[in-house]
Amino acid sequence: IHQTKELWLKEIIHEVRLAKGLVRAGDLEPAYKALARVSRIQTIMTLSWDVLATMTPAEYSMFRNQLGRASGFQSYQYRMLEFVIGNKNADMFGVYQREPQKYEELQRALHSPNIYDESLRLLSRRGFEIPEEYLDRDWSQSYQPSKQVAAAWLAVYHSVDDNWDLYDLAEKLVDLDHKFQLWRFSHMKTVERIIGYKRGTGGTGGVSYLTKALELRFFPELWTIRTSM
Known about the structure:
Layout: H1 2-25, H2 28-52, H3 57-61, H4 76-85, H5 100-110, H6 115-125, H7 147-157, H8 164-195, H9 207-213, H10 220-224
Helix pairs in contact: 1-2, 1-4, 1-6, 2-8, 4-5, 8-9
């Protein structure tokens, strides 16, 4: 199952990078197709947890010790995907220092704009007020929500007829974020069902860690503005 997910992750990374480049170029319609493909893949990946959830605690305990400290933290592609979408955390890839090529690629992704950064730059070019510090910042730092950015997106939603392409982009990003949350939730519930509240193999709190991860939003303003509409 996990090997299959790595193949899907490779495809998602390709599509998100493609979409990011298209957003940077202001060519949004092809970007929508790439993001729609990502959404379909995310659905398949979420459903795959249903297969793992058929495993009973007794069945898992038969081989769990053989996993040692093996963990999802070791997935280079998962970390790359989070960086490309927007969850930047420099502390999360020290494990890759023994693999110079992967480490260098992650460093480049860490210090590059993600798809949301490029979307905000596009908003600015289209005349919406985005603070300067959000257009050229230290891309390696985690994103901090902004009331001004929220106001810009809200203006898009209040002028759908004039800004349909930006509105559609926003909804595609929400879909990406939403499907990621569903994937995380299914992960958490599968772990809870199989091992309860034991610690994870990677040294985390297991279910408690995965539950906390559910609080993460890649594109926070696209969620908060819904209350203001």
